[in-house]
Amino acid sequence: MEIQGWLYRAKGPSRGLIVQVHGGPTAHSEAALSAFIQSAVAAGFSVLDPNYRGSTGFGVAFREAIRKTGWGGLEQDDIRPYSEEMMGGSPAMAPERYRERSPIHYVERIKGHLFIVQGANDPNVTPENVRVVEEALRRAHVPYETLLFADEGHGVRKPENLRVLYARLIEFFGAAFAG
Questions:
Q1: How far apart are CA 11 and CA 67, in angstroms?
Q2: Shared-domain flag, residues 13 and 77
Q3: Residues of 16-29 as b/e, b for ≥16 C-beta within 10 angstroms?
Q4: Mean pLDDT, to the nearest integer, of 109-138?
Q5: 165 is in which domain, residue-wise?
């Protein structure tokens, strides 16, 4: 399936390509100013900002294309997570599907560099969720870094925290692409 997206190219040789995935299938990326994208491009990275199947703004057929296999299926070829509607029911109703698509059961497959950003007040991805993932990563001997924002929820929004986050992301991607 052909998808639309935005490619921002670094001036001169690129230090690497960062793929920025927008959250959830109820959104889409537009030709709009993004402080992170601008920071990454200014630091010498190229950035791809795709609108994967399920994204809004491209017609009903494209938005509904995510439902063919349920969330966590085909759009993973494009990109991303899960809701009961997309998974065909609650965990109690579709336990095999939830287990099969849960990343916690595949941490040993992680290659490369991993950077976890957590808002301590996140009601969706709770600190307990992150603790469980970190425990699984340690058991699998997968190296990772965590950046915790005590005063954020689901997403980093405060300007002072965004400055810290963007600087750390640029540092992280610089180290990851250096090898």
A1: 39
A2: yes
A3: eebebebeebeebb
A4: 94
A5: 102-179
| Global confidence as pTM | 0.76
**Gap between the Cα atoms of 119 and 111, Å rounded:** 24
Average pLDDT rounded to a whole number, residues 88-101? 81
Structural domains in the chain (count): 2
Distance CA 28, CA 51 (A): 6
Q: How many residues does this entry show for the chain?
A: 179
Cβ-proximal residues to 73 (8 Å cutoff; 6+ apart), any chain: 66, 101
Distance from C-alpha of 87 to C-alpha of 79, rounded to nearest angstrom: 16
104 is written with which tokens? 């916690």
18's tokens:
């960062």
- 152 near 161, Cβ under 8 Å? yes
- Whether residues 57 and 127 share a domain: the answer is no
pLDDT recorded at residue 129: 93
Percentage above 70 pLDDT, the chain: 82
Q: Please tell me whether residues 106 and 75 are part of one structural domain.
A: no
Q: Is 176 within the bounds of a domain?
A: yes
